[in-house]
């Protein structure tokens, strides 16, 4: 899953219109994002990449998830099972 930020159209002078900001998941804005459907008890493993310059909290509506690792372009930190935590929102720096 790739999180991105897209800014609206260019203005007449060629500069970007920063008044229009769209958060994208896999290149699509809500409500046009892909619908992921799972059954209760399914175990799903996602890798979330924040390709934007902005810090954005990642959250799932109505679900908990376990954070197994986090990182940036320099390194990844993998959490041992005892260090992992259940989360509703996780800040992706």
Overview of this protein structure:
- This protein is mostly beta strands.
- It has one domain (2-92).
- The protein contains no helices and ten strands.
- The strands form four sheets. The protein has a four-stranded mixed sheet, with no helix packed on it. Strands 5-10 form a two-stranded antiparallel sheet.
- Strand 2 and strand 3 (28-29) form a beta hairpin.
- The radius of gyration is 16 Å and the shape is extended.
- The model has no long low-confidence stretch (mean pLDDT 77).
List keywords for this structure.
extended; 93 residues; mainly beta; four-stranded mixed β-sheet; single chain
The global form is: extended
Number of helices: 0
**Most strands sheet:** 4 strands, mixed
Radius of gyration: 16 Å
Mean of residue pLDDT values: 77
User: How much strand content do the residues show?
Assistant: 35-45%
N- and C-termini, Cα separation: 15 Å
**Roughly how much helix do the residues carry, as a percent range?**
under 10%
Strand order of the largest sheet: 3-2-1-4
Q: pLDDT below 50 for ≥5 consecutive residues: which ranges? A: none
Secondary structure tally: strands? 10
Provide a quick synopsis of the model:
The protein is mostly beta strands and 93 residues long. Helices cover 0% and strands 38% of the residues.
Layout of helices and strands:
Layout: E1 2-7, E2 21-25, E3 28-29, E4 49-50, E5 56-59, E6 65-67, E7 69-71, E8 76-78, E9 85-87, E10 89-92
Parallel strand pairs: 1-4
Antiparallel strand pairs: 1-2, 2-3, 5-10, 6-9, 7-8
